[in-house]
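Known limitations

Structure tokens in this collection are predictions and should be treated as such. Users comparing against experimental data should check residue numbering before alignment. To illustrate the layout, the record for Oxidoreductase/SDR, 3-oxoacyl-(Acyl carrier protein) reductase is reproduced below. The input appears on top and the generated tokens appear beneath it.
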Amino acid sequence: MAPRALVIGGRRGIGGAVVRRLAADGWDVTYSYRTAPDGLDEHRAACPDARIDAVTLDLADAEEVERFAAGLEDGPGWDALVQVGGMTHDSLAAMLDHARAALVMQVNHHAFVRLARAVVRPMTRARAGRIVAVGSVMGLVASQGNAAYSAAKAALLAHVRTLAIETARRGVTVNYVAPGFVDTEMMAPFANWRATTEARVPAGRYARTEEIAAVVGFLLSPAAGYVTGAVIPVDGGLTASLGIARG
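Generated tokens:
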């Protein structure tokens, strides 16, 4: 029987690439979507030999997340959980609206806390399991206008690291992947600044979604059994750079 992976936010972008990567690696994949499951046919066409299913979940709705998580607890255990879904909000820290900041925290952090709790106990009983949170380099560094998003991704990272050390002896790995600039629809509103942002990246380009998915695929593989509590930037050298031009 193929192992089962649950991908939160797998309709398109990084999540869609993760779904296809895991399916190609032999996983049965169920992914969540918020508004429309229109990626399902494309996923199945790309991986015709894999089992891929889709379920609806709005991470912004705490009650819906609770119901979904309770359903996970009542069902069969999962071999892997990958959290990809998230949301951004641009605002100067001094002007940040509390309600909006709370929503960003709910989507990016609180939902993961509840979903991870739902799947981790069966994993610890089985003494096997993989959990990966796809966060952001913004959880590691500061960027003007990103206070809410950075805070939520930093909270996600702190939770991942703590869960990792609490479950390591039970055969569960928990890791954090930190993409930088990725060529997705989320970056479309910033198209006018693309050349400028690409110039800040030592690699000189945005990441492809498949490159993020490849790292997730590795972390779910048997070869990564000793990797837990790790933070893996996939950012073309962005966080390794001081960002100070010479000459």
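For this record: The radius of gyration is 18 Å. The chain has a mean pLDDT of 90. Please report discrepancies through the issue tracker.
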